[in-house]
Each structure stands twice: as structure tokens, then as C-alpha cells.
Amino acid sequence: MADSVPCVLDITDPLAPPDPTWLEALSDRWLLPYMVDPRDVVFSRLITNIATQLVPLTVVMFLVPDLWALALTVPYVAYLFIRFGGPVVLGLHAVTHRPLFKKKYRGWDRLMTYVVPLFFGLPPFAYHSHHVRMHHKMENREDDLSSTAAYQRDHFGHFLHYWARFAFFGYFHLGSWLIRGKHSRQAVNMIVGDLCVYAVMIGLTVVRPAAAVATFWVPFAMLRFFLMAGNWTEHAFIDIEDQDNRYRNSTNLLNTPYNHRAYNAGYHMIHHVVPGLHWADTVPYFRKHVGKMVANDAVMFDGIRNNQQIWWRLMRGDYGFLADHLIDAEGRRPSREERIAFLKSRVKPTLGERKGLLERRERRSA
Predict the structure, then answer these.
(1) What angle do CA 342, 347, 349 make, to 5 degrees?
(2) CB atoms inside a 10 Å sphere around CB 86
(3) pTM greater than 0.90 (yes/no)
């Protein structure tokens, strides 16, 4: 079936790790014997680069005078996100779903899941509960705290409401969800663990305010926007008449630099269909099952840079750009106007009102 669909004949997304630098090659030789899958050297390389590049730079920020730290805030944050932002967040995502190191050395996974996120203002204890236990279980339905279904997904005011629920009241909602779903232990671990992280951040702020703001609080604020804009976009084009269809509540991004930087994370639809699929097996899986995606009228884009670009085009109402990159494998919508109309039909909210900022979303047992 795949060979009969023109859109998949020329895919440039990665099938294997890229060639390493000399330092990464050294890291590979040291860590590869302890890893579950040799293709996951992309994550050990990431940890190596952060340890040798970002950690020393962060230490320097705390050693220089406050005025220097303040002046270096913009270049530091730019370097942090441009060099490492996508790889770290999606690396955390990948290792949360699949262990990195063999069972005997499984504790080393915490370098990727607990330690590395701290440099990006991401207290780590809530991530697994929010993403794996809640988001994947609820699949963007009403009980999903990050569900986009109740929002008009090309409306900036609706996005601000969505962002504010997460940024200001996320712990309240997730704690409530966990407790109502009889996951009280996870709720306690999340709250206590992240409170300890916040206490350290506050302590560093008292001692070295300029450096702490630059290295923790500014990334903390920015990452909350990037996380919510990313999830908003991944679940922007929902078929509200068939929300339980996993081929119709997410997107695939093909032939994009994002997939090279973020381990094929653009294939988010496939991730929801097979959450534990290895990142390097994503393209072969797509080729094998693309016929089912096309049959389900899945939203797939070719050549778009990343999810943030889609978010920006949605907020501007630039459906022409999105329609130009929409894959129409079977020629169902040959004209640009037809593709625009289709995309607009997939951003409409479900019937019913949006929940208030503090109003609990879940109605059924979590």
C-alpha cells in the first residue's frame, strides 16, 4: 500500500543516529555496552554535550558578577534553547517511554529524566504522571488535562486560556487527577519532589539573583509556553465527530529538520498509536501503515519546520501556508481552497463550554 501513495516515496527523516563528533564517539565507546538499544546513543551523546558545554556555562553564570550575568541572560537563553531545547524535551519524552540503559544500570536513566531537565526550568517529577499516566491514557478527551478539544484552535485568546490553566494551576489539576484516579502516591511524589526543586531554585535566587533568573526562571517561563504551544499544535486538527480515532486527533510532520533534531517526534500521530515505538523505527512504521492513515483522512504535513511554525500560522490564520504543505495523498482535495476548508473544519471546538482556570476538567474517574 505504501508504494502506491506518492507522498511517502521520498522521506528524508532519520533512520539511524548521525555520525558522531570525536567527543561523542568517545562517549559511545564508554556507554554503549550499558545501553538497551545501540541506536539510543543519540541520548547519551546529548547528555555528554550538556555535561561538557551547558553545565560549565551555567556554572560560569553563577561565578561572574551579577551585572555580567544579567548582560549574558539573552545569549545564554538563546544558546540554551537553540542548541539544546528541542533535543532535551523530546529526549526526556523518549526516555520516559523507553528505558535508555540496561536493567542493571537503569538508575542512570535519571540523568536524562531528572537531572538534564533542571537546566531548562523543568522540575522533573510531574512529567511522567502528566504525560504517560494521564495524557496517553485519556487521549485528548475531556479527562485529559491537556486536551485541546474544547478550544477554537486558531484563536489566540483560547490558547492563552489553555496556557494559563497549565502554567498557573497545572499542579492543582494534575494532583486532583492523580488522587481521584487512586494514584495518591504519585501525587505525593510529584508535589514533594518538585517542591524540593523549587526550594533549591529559590535558594539560588536569594544567593545569586541575576544568575538564577537567567539560568532557571527565564527558561522555566519560556518552556511552559513551548510545551503548551507544542501540544496545542500536535492536537490542533481534531475530528470532533470522531475524537477516539487516534488517526484523527494528532498530526504527522514529514521531511522536517525537527525530526533530525528531536528523534522523529514530528510523527506524533504514530506515537499515539504505538507509544513505545523506537524513534528509529518510526519511518519504517509510517511506510508500512500509511495506507491506514490516508484512509482515516489523517492530517499530515510535508516540509514544515516544526510544531511552533504551525502554531504561529494558526494564530495568524495563515491557512494558505498550511494548505500548501498539507499532504493530499489520494487527491481528495486538489484545490488550495478545498484544503483550507478541510483544515478549518478540524480546528473547531467540541460542543460545551471551556472549563475555568481552576475548574476541574475531569468528570469521570481518572
Answers:
(1) 130
(2) 22
(3) yes
Strands (E), the chain: 251-254, 299-302
- Cell numbers at residue 352, please? 460545551
Q: Which residues make Cβ contacts (< 8 Å) with residue 349, sequence separation at least 6?
A: 149, 150, 151, 152, 153, 158, 240
Neighbours of 277 (CB within 10 A): 17
Cβ-contact 267, 282 below 8 angstroms? yes
Q: Which residues lie below 8 Å from residue 327, measured CB to CB, with a gap of 6+?
A: 7, 254, 300, 301, 302
Q: pLDDT by residue (tens digit) across 280-300? A: 999 999 999 999 999 999 999
CA–CA dist 169, 228 (Å, integer): 13
Convert the pLDDT of each residue in 60-95 to its tens digit: 999 999 999 999 999 999 999 999 999 999 999 999
Please, is 299 exposed, middle or buried when counting C-beta atoms within 10 Å of its C-beta (0-12, 13-18, 19+)?
buried
